[in-house]
Amino acid sequence: MAISATRSGAPGVKGISNSAFNKLDPAKYTALGDFIDEVNAPDIRANLIKTFGDQGITGFLKLTGAVNTAGTADEVTYWEEARLHQKQAGVVDGGGSEVAVDAATVTLDGIVAQGGSAYTEGTSDQLIAREGDIVLVGGVDRFVVTGVAIADAATGAAVLTLKSLDGSGLTVALADDEAVSFPIIGNMFDQGTDQPGRYMESNVVKRTNPYAIVKEVFKVTGSQATNIGYIDLGGGDYRWYIKGEQDTRQRFMDKREMTLLLGQKTAAGGAHSFSGTEGYFAALEDRGLVTDGKIGSGSTANFDDIDAIITQLDKQGAPSEYAMYANTAQMLLLDTMLSNGGTSSTSGVATNYGAFNNDRDMALNLGFSSFSRGGYTFHKHSWKLLNDPTLLDGSAFNGVCIPLANVTDANTGTKAPALEMNYKASNGYSREMEHWVTGGGVLGFNNNGKDVAEFNYRSECNLITRAANQHILIK
Questions:
Q1: Is residue 466 within 8 Å of 418, Cβ to Cβ?
Q2: pTM of the full predicted structure?
């Protein structure tokens, strides 16, 4: 039987070079890899190194006590109570001269008469005061309303005349055309006079927030779904597409949470067909307490910033316990403030764990450390989202303070947490976290003709920020 010569006249097998061992002079041999090529199996470590740690930022809303509630309309409507007492605002009318010329009388104009009685939230100048009301001018002088006149019947503009109660007049300077607002601290009437002709109607503020629809998708071909890689992705599974699907799911969860935190309502008549949704930061920027910088960022690490915040919280009727989520820079400033005490005494700083059943270990296990001052307890916690260099690190947001108390709905009287995450749901169908897979037989999904498995994610949700005036945004 004849045998053909396939390489240089020598017998061999097609595709294999039998002279591969001549790559290196054996006399200069230093390592087996230099002498025999592509024989040893590579030493591959199957574990995937978490170079940037756990990169998921989801969980803030659940950790702060935000509850999940099903919704059945395109937006959530809720009511917030207005302040019980309102100030009378207006413009000082001195008739072209300083009011001090007649210090016993102050005239306010530029006031809008609101249909006789109703108070309209958000309008700075409306007719609230009535004849006989006592107002506090400049924080010290008591004046009584002696006249209420409608200056312009067409526009409903009103003019108030205020007379010094004890005749001593003004001890503070009021300039002509100065915008002012006076608290109404009581009223007085002569004997035998009638009851007031006008009355104040209690009001609630109606707020609405549309839902946001968040979507994501991941695809893998049938061929790639059967490829085996080097890396163990958990449970001995080496199929690399599993990693892509897991990361897509995490990105979807992160983006959903960030939409609820950073979303904004779209402008009326804008280019977007969707309504947008008010996120947590937008709610705080609109009607919350906003700092003008990091807490404790001054030249001395004292408690002045915390004390200023506590003063504002007192004005808002805030609860006594707060969760403070902040970036690393803010956390370091707080640690310095608490450790040094600055120029203030640290005797007013204590530790309290009321929100955690007064259990220090429970608080520490959840990553919180706490301090108290001025009757308020702050549980501080590092916020990963604000430290992520690919997301909010370097943004204008340094942290938030969230009240750890239920808020009473002014319309229904029911109590609800300060933050509420809602999702659309009805009759057993929920859009909180929808997940489905399509494919033409790939991975066993037989619902189309494509050689691709498509992983779909969808959520329709929004966030309600109740009593935003009791929340703090650290900028």
A1: yes
A2: 0.77
